[in-house]
Design brief:
mainly beta; Beta-galactosidase, Chain A, domain 5; Jelly Rolls; nine-stranded antiparallel sheet; 3 helices; 4% helix; globular; rhamnogalacturonan endolyase activity; lyase; carbohydrate binding; Polysacch_Lyase_4; Carb-bd-like_fold
Length: 640
């Protein structure tokens, strides 16, 4: 037993750690957190929910034949507890679960080691896990992995996601039949008779509170009596999947707080981790930090958010942590650095190379350009370039990677073609590297901004029946039911955009969706882009670039001057499954298509491009455009 200030007490069914500030109780050997005692609150966690209570690691998995993103839910009950470290300053617990063929089909085929680390006088705890698939294990799909906390319903009512996204929240009871009315999918509920009248007429949907990985560093809840905060801090994204723009859940009604490691949210089945029989794989998820804070003055309760952000910054500066005992987690001196300068070469914009400023540059598993947004088994390491395009990526695990990049204002994905192999302690200088974004000719016209988002396009006001008050003046795309507004704005004829006359901020709807013409009967939509070319090069080749910010089981068809041309110039086939339209996002997975248009198909004067979304099985099949550009025939020396 440690000295006073950090005490470990193991019983038959429970193990308790008291560090002088907080007392945490786990089931033994299950590793489920049943109690967190802090600042006069007997338990920060809920224990009266019908199904899920306390705090726990969980996962969702499927057999390899599954085509779904959901399967069997597992709260990962451990079978063995070991005390890895126990001294005056630190205790580290390990809850493990083995796998054998006796449980095949009933238990996920993984060896799982969940760790919890508690320090003396620190108001919180760290958690990480090692997941391993060995050569004697069968194939399966790992759909989701996370840590979930079900907070005390009587105490936590105010949720904070960001500086601008924080509010008092309705209760879980408000979502039940009688008080709540289910909408187009189970997560979205219209509050018709909430306990607190202020929430009446609002929509509650956990997907309205999602964040991109790069921004998802701290979120949580505040209790006002006594003034206590409960925060989930993620100091690094290296163990998350899908890259910096991948979006995921944060906190939501119950009250619930999540630490997400992998999901298919806003991506689809491509982000499922699919294991073959006998495939050897091991990954460390975390550590993440669950942080508690308090103030004595109830009037200062909201300041707990500022303190949580301060603590988050401290955790980020401390990464990689020095305390994890697992050899699978490399410390600072065991990691490497890659640095360089990213330039952009576009001869139609500048004779000189341009600095790739504010670009996202990262290392991920070797693959094609852009493959990082679908990568799900390895680690990723990202940073942003400065005004000169310079970057330094630190704390990289040893291994082999490709370097990838995304530059705002330019379409496509950069890839450094040489595989970069990092060893412990290395510092690799790449020097100047040059991205040549797709370009065949001068820009004749463009619609939108190439930033992988549809945020610049027209986002309608929501139906007054479906309001979230948090988004009345910001992030309107997060409101429920905006897909229904298209048919209201265009009841018979589809959108027509005239280059040089129309304004994409007002005249280009943010998502091309179906039109409902009957009860669950939908009609495809065809948008038109009208433009003039005075002098057509009949023997030349024109190029249409179509960048999509999202696609959900959609098929984009492109035609020129003949809306019935068969075959079309482009048919993508059914692509995507990011569900960004239904889940209130402004982007999902990025797609880029190039359409070659022979000059013989163009007319002197007015021309029309027809964009058809051809899939009509349901209301959420659709696409979001990022950017569209028509290029003229190539000029050998550019147009400068």
């Amino acid at each position: 037993m440690s000295s006073t200030g950090l005490l470990l007490k193991a019983q038959n069914d429970y193990v308790v750690i008291n560090n002088g500030v907080v007392e945490i109780t786990w089931t033994n050997p299950g590793g489920i957190i049943k109690g967190i005692k802090y600042k006069g609150i007997d338990n920060l966690l809920e224990k009266k929910n019908k199904d899920l209570n306390g705090g726990f690691w969980d996962l969702n998995w499927s057999e390899p034949s599954s085509t779904k993103t959901r399967g069997k839910f597992d709260t990962i009950q451990g079978t063995d507890l070991q005390v890895i470290v126990e001294n005056e300053e630190q205790i580290e617990l390990s809850f493990t679960r083995m796998w054998s063929s006796e449980v095949q089909g009933e238990q996920v085929p993984l060896y799982i080691d969940r760790r919890f680390v508690v320090f003396r006088d620190v108001p919180g705890f760290y958690s990480y896990a090692i997941f391993e698939h060995t050569k004697d294990m069968p194939a399966f799909h790992l759909n989701t992995t996370r840590i979930a906390f079900m907070l005390n319903k009587e105490k936590f009512h105010y949720m904070v996601i960001t500086d601008d996204r924080q509010r008092f929240m309705p209760s879980a009871e408000d979502r039940l039949p009688g008080r709540g009315e289910p909408l187009a999918y189970p997560e979205a509920v219209l509050l018709v008779d909430p306990i607190e009248p202020e929430f009446k007429g609002e929509v509650d949907d956990k997907y309205q509170y999602s964040l991109e990985n790069k921004d998802n560093q701290v979120h949580g809840w505040i209790c006002f009596d006594p003034p206590v905060g409960f925060w989930q801090i993620t100091p690094s994204n290296e163990f998350r999947t899908g890259g910096p723009f991948k979006q995921d859940l944060t906190s939501h009604v119950n009250p619930t707080t999540l630490a997400i490691f992998l999901t298919s949210h806003y991506a689809g089945t491509e982000l499922l981790v699919k294991f073959e029989t006998g495939e050897e794989w091991k990954k460390v998820l975390g550590p993440v930090f669950t942080y508690f804070n308090s103030v004595s003055d109830k009037e200062m309760a909201l300041s707990l958010w500022d303190d949580a952000k301060r603590q988050m910054n401290e955790e980020v500066q401390s990464w990689p942590y020095s305390f994890p005992t697992s050899e699978e987690f490399p410390k600072c001196g065991q990691r490497g650095i890659v640095r360089g300068r990213l330039l952009v070469q576009d001869r139609y914009l500048s004779k000189e190379n341009l600095p790739g400023k504010a670009a996202s540059v990262g290392l991920a598993a070797p693959g094609d350009a852009g493959s990082w947004q679908r990568e799900n088994k390895g680690y990723q390491f990202w940073t942003m370039t400065d005004e000169d395009g310079c970057f330094v990526i630190k704390n990289i695990r040893a291994g082999s990677y490709n370097l990838y990049g995304v530059v705002p204002g330019f379409i496509g994905d950069y890839k450094y073609e040489v595989v970069i192999t990092l060893t412990e302690g290395c510092d690799i200088e790449l020097g100047e590297i040059v991205y040549e974004p797709p370009r065949d000719g001068p820009t004749l016209w463009e619609i939108g901004i190439p930033d992988r988002s549809a945020a610049e396009f027209y986002i309608p006001d929501p139906n007054p029946k479906y309001i979230n008050k948090l988004y009345l003046t910001q992030d309107k795309f997060r409101q429920y039911g905006l897909w229904e507004r298209y048919a209201e704005l265009y009841p018979e004829n589809d959108l027509v955009y005239t280059v040089g006359v129309s304004d994409y901020q007002k005249d280009w709807f943010f998502a091309q969706v179906n039109r409902e013409i009957g009860d669950n009967v939908y009609q495809s939509t065809t948008w038109q882009i009208k433009f003039k070319i005075d002098n057509v090069d009949q023997g030349g080749l024109y190029t249409l670039r179509v960048a999509l910010a999202a696609s959900n089981h959609a098929e984009l068809q492109v035609r020129i001057n003949d809306p019935t041309a068969d075959p079309p110039l482009l048919s993508t086939g059914e692509i995507g499954g990011d569900n960004a339209i239904a889940r209130h996002a402004i982007h999902g997975i990025y797609w880029l298509f190039t359409v070659t248009i022979p000059g013989s198909l163009l007319l002197g004067g007015e021309n029309t491009i027809f964009l058809t979304q051809a899939k009509t099985a349901n209301t959420f099949q659709g696409i979001m455009y990022d950017y569209i550009r028509l290029e003229g025939p190539s000029c050998q020396n550019g147009n400068l």
